[in-house]
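Lay summary. Proteins are chains of building blocks that fold into shapes, and those shapes determine what they do. In this project we predict the shape from the chain. Here is one chain we studied, written as its sequence of building blocks.
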Amino acid sequence: MTGKTQTIPIQYFFPGPAYVRPEILAQMARPQIPHRSKEFCAIHLDICQILTDLFSQRGTWLVVTASSTYMMEACFHNTTPTRILALVNGAFAERWARIAHFFCNDVVELRAALGEVFSPAAISKILQEKKFSHILITHSETSTGALNPLAQLCQTIRQKSDALICVDAVSSLGGVAIDFTSIDFLFAGVQKAMALPPGITLTYLSDRYLEMAQAVPAKSFYFDLAMTLQKAKDGYTQTTPSAPHFFALQKQLHDMKEEGLANRLKRHLAMLQQTEAWVAGQELGYFTKHPAPTVSCLEFAKSQELVQDLRNQGFTIGGGYGELGARTFRIAHMGDVGVSDLNFLLDKMSQIIDDKYKF
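And here is the predicted shape, written in a compact code that computers can read:
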């Protein structure tokens, strides 16, 4: 696990904000520094370089003191949407689709049932019927635990369309393998698989997206990514940043490099497999047939009671989201959680279920 020194098992498995290591929290307690100082600029530049080296090996990264929803909007402020295809299969995909309607009169919402994912065949069919400027994909839908087959979808899109491929990777970046080859715009708040406190968002821009953004007249000061990038080239930020988040992010990225991204991704897969085995043993079921390595959404008739039972014993998991609230619960096995931590939780859950819910 990334830089782990804690010996007491983690008891916090909430799917965002996720667990944050004490070492990361300690970075946020460092004294403030001027955000236009050489020291801050060096930290900022180091962060952007590591993001490129660790994840994308191409394109440009921005770090903005804002929520992921900011980037859902910024995506459109900096381009000219003519027709948008929004793939909607959960609450967070739904949010991005709603935002798209503010920027474009022609938004096509391709919908899948909650827990389902999109097939390349479905995407191929709609691309044969219509041309799009933007295609919105939520990689890992945190509300249902469903993981879209991003690489296959991107490959299909590129074979049939020159649309900008825009990706919500909030609960996948840092926990799920991502091929950036065809992606034009990708954002991830740091409060999930990146395992930092919420407050900043990481954004990847392809060279093609940047060319478009630089050619489009600015529609906003706050959402102007071209200006943000111009400042970032020298380590500056467009507006006053949360320096403590940059301290924490730099520490986390260096620790992730030390662990190795491949090892980190293997750990997430191992925790998914661990949870799947436990679910089978408890005769429970996943809400989705396409579970993400970062969060499991499980069906259980007494979900709300189980969440409270665990809270009473010092454990935190997630309840169901939105309309799934009464019949599902969610376990976050993401970020800096380890296999032994997850095993500690699952043992406690087995005990509670056996004692209270099995007759």
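What the prediction tells us: Residues 261-282 form the longest helix (22 residues).
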